[in-house]
Amino acid sequence: MPAPDSIPKENELPLASTEYYAKLRKLQRREWWTWGTSLTVILLLTAGVASLSVPAILEEKNTAYGTGVLQAVSGLVFLIMLFGGYLTYEKILINRLRLELAERQTHSILWRDLAMVDPLTGLYNRRYAERRVREEIARAERRGYALTLVLFDLDKFKQVNDLHGHPAGDALLKEFANRISKAVRVADLAARLGGDEFMLLLTECDASQVPVMLKRLEGAQVEIGGKMVPIGFSVGWKEYEPGENAGDLFAAADRALYRDKESRKSKASASPPVPPQPVGSHTS
User: Fold this and answer.
1) Average of pLDDT values for 34-60?
2) Hey, where are the domains in the chain?
3) How far is it, in rounded angstroms, from Cα 44 to Cα 62?
4) Which of the two residues, 168 and 35, has the higher pLDDT score?
5) Is 276 left (phi over 0), alpha (psi -120 to 50) or beta?
6) CA distance linking residue 138 with residue 199, whole number of Å
7) For a FRET experiment, which of 69, 153, 160, 189 has its CA 20 to 30 Å from that of 19?
8) 126-282 has which fold?
9) How confident is the model over 228-284, as pLDDT tens digits?
10) What does the alpha-carbon distance between residue 139 and residue 122 come to, in Å, rounded to a whole number?
11) What crossing angle do the helices spanning 126-143 and 246-267 adopt, rounded to 10°?
């Protein structure tokens, strides 16, 4: 049987599974201690019964009575040992099965993360984001909830890569991902669509709340080459309207993003934010 020590070490596990394996290891140690104590008690009781029978066996060893007591005690000891051995074998099989299930769960988590999570930023990826948008649209349609899609495009990301290298670009992406994750609620969805494109899906939230959320992103910056560099971005959003599908919502938000990007190129920061009704854009 895989003993507790045969469970993978914590530094060999993905972070999401470390706590699970630690609990499993603790549970198996406690179970083996309980099992060992119980088996010891059973053996001591058996030894006690056998010792109490020894005088009768010695006194009547030449009689049928004495022979019968000896056979009964021997049979009792044999049955107890057989029963204890069988239960130990069953426990070994159960613990082995439990460990196999734990390993399968870990592999399932790993495959899920590969399929759903962006490895650089830790946000959900495009595949999962598009599926979630469709699901939330169906829910909003059924229950009449508000739903708003927000798209981001980072400014001068290519220049950062060209001037400072890809590690600097990766640091910028991770910092922006961290900021938008903290800017929304647990029920909302933050995702990286690819490159320097990000997405937020604000559930049960109309477009009037987007400027409030964007204020939480003001002042975002990342350290590059020993200097703090501000993270600029273009943004566009669209509130869901009955009858729209996911493609319609993405297309409308993308048009708003494009307008904001063009405005930033032509007017820099001279233009104030445009209130979203219902398609919005933000100029920082």
Assistant:
1) 68
2) 4-116, 126-282
3) 28
4) 168
5) beta
6) 19
7) 189
8) Alpha-Beta Plaits (3.30.70)
9) 888 999 999 999 999 999 999 999 999 999 999 988 877 765 555 554 444 444 544
10) 26
11) 110
